[in-house]
Amino acid sequence: MKHIFIINPTAGKYDSRQRIYEMADHLRTAHGLDVQCILTKKQGHATEIARKLCQTGESLRFYACGGDGSINEVATGLVGAKNASMSVYACGSGNDYIKYYGTKEDFLDLPSLLDGVETPIDLMKVGDRYSVNVTNFGFDTRVAQVGNVLKGKLGAKAYTVGVVAALFSAMWTKCRIWADGEEICPKKLLLCSVANGRYVGGQYKCAPKGSNDDGLLE
């Protein structure tokens, strides 16, 4: 199996590249593993990298080195590939999806990641894109817009700043929702969350009963 670390160099408050390179060298020299590190250069690049490598037919395990955005991009690149799996090296400013499984520290423990048991998960398809964790519209859309601008400086606190901004600009969204052929909400709403995971914004448990492998959305 080939181990591929896809690294977002702009993820998180601190540059984790050197630490990841050192871990990769240790895996090569001490454990004899086939390891490759690849830096992303633009938004969506992780998807391009993963998709292209999956087409080689090799047995691959990817490690998304970043936050929730990196996880989403790598997972999207793996859709339909039976020769690949992924894990996460959690060095981003937002690490909500991994809370489904444990703590951030669990996903900085490389030996545990290497020994991790592979298990299938559900994905949400939104237009021609995929969502791994939670798809929001309404209030949280504005929160995310503000938070994405500030997360490089504020980390998880950026989401809280986004909430304050949304209070003044996104209290009601014109929207109609159907589920299983039935309209289930009025024409205006505050927020709708459709979840595989359980957390958003670093600390908000939006879907306590969310399950990412039951074929259902919360």
Structure write-up:
This protein is an alpha/beta fold. The protein is built from 6 helices and 14 strands. It has helices at residues 17-31, 45-54, 68-78, 110-114, 139-154, 157-169, and strands at 2-7, 34-39, 60-66, 84-90, 124-126, 129-131, 134-138, 173-174, 178-179, 182-183, 188-189, 191-195, 199-200, 204-205. The strands form 6 sheets. Strands 2-1-3-4 form a 4-stranded parallel sheet, sandwiched between helices. Helix 5 runs antiparallel to helix 6. The protein is globular. The two termini are 35 Å apart.
What is the radius of gyration?
18 Å
Shape: globular
How many helices?
6
The helix/strand series, from N terminus to C terminus, equals EHEHEHEHEEEHHEEEEEEE
Provide key terms for this protein:
4-stranded parallel beta sheet, alpha/beta, 32% helix, two-stranded antiparallel sheet, globular
Provide a brief overview of the structure:
32% of the residues lie in helices and 25% in strands. The protein has 6 helices and 14 strands.
Outline the secondary-structure elements.
Layout: E1 2-7, H1 17-31, E2 34-39, H2 45-54, E3 60-66, H3 68-78, E4 84-90, H4 110-114, E5 124-126, E6 129-131, E7 134-138, H5 139-154, H6 157-169, E8 173-174, E9 178-179, E10 182-183, E11 188-189, E12 191-195, E13 199-200, E14 204-205
Parallel strand pairs: 1-2, 1-3, 3-4
Antiparallel strand pairs: 5-6, 7-12, 8-11, 9-10, 13-14
Helix pairs in contact: 2-3, 5-6
